[in-house]
Design goal:
Strand content: 15-25%
Shape: globular
Largest sheet: 6 strands, mixed
Distance between the termini: 27 Å
Number of strands: 6
């Protein structure tokens, strides 16, 4: 799902389709490039993936239009594949712009917590790779097509980490990207 097609409804539908089309012996790869954020206090406290159609007038509107950590977890757990790789290139440095309601002063902390990532990795053969830790920034250079993380991720997959026999191992990809 690219650009304007990466809506909440379409992303949740894609999880359902992956769950229906894959089986135990499937290999599933999910790559998410988006914003992630945390509402730290109040009735809507939690972690959210911000799809292209997320609206942040206030916490309630964000909770209704973003994808909660519970929805992400449910979507991933519905996929029975024993081999699942999920890559998050979620911007931890930016917010999601100015709120539409000028009188509302939102407090959305960028990024996801380490506990969120750990909860997603439950199960055998499941790997979660994130572009940055909750206290780090993800960067895209001026004029670049992709973030630095995605640039080096693609570079690694395009031969930067090819092992003997032509295999690309996920931890070799991580080791390639991390220092860059």
């Amino acid at each position: 799902l690219l650009d304007s097609k990466a809506t909440k409804a379409n992303i949740l539908q894609a999880f359902t389709e992956l769950a229906n089309k894959s089986g135990k012996d499937s290999s599933v790869f999910i790559y998410i490039s988006s914003h992630g954020g945390q509402i730290q206090n109040g009735a809507y406290a939690g972690e959210y993936l911000l799809p292209v159609d997320a609206v942040y007038q206030d916490d309630e509107t964000l909770a209704d239009t973003a994808i909660s950590s519970e929805e992400i977890t449910q979507g991933l757990r519905s996929i029975s594949a024993r081999k699942l790789v999920v890559v998050f290139d979620c911007c931890h440095s930016g917010g999601i712009g100015q709120p539409k309601n000028a009188t509302y002063s939102p407090e959305l902390k960028a990024g996801f917590t380490n506990d969120f990532y750990k909860s997603l990795a439950v199960g055998s053969g499941r790997v979660i790779i994130a572009s940055s830790r909750p206290d780090e920034y993800s960067w895209i250079m001026p004029g670049a097509k992709n973030s630095l993380f995605t640039h080096y991720f693609l570079e690694g997959l395009s031969g930067g980490v090819t092992a003997p026999g032509g295999f690309i191992r996920i931890f070799d990809v991580f080791d390639y990207i991390q220092p860059r």
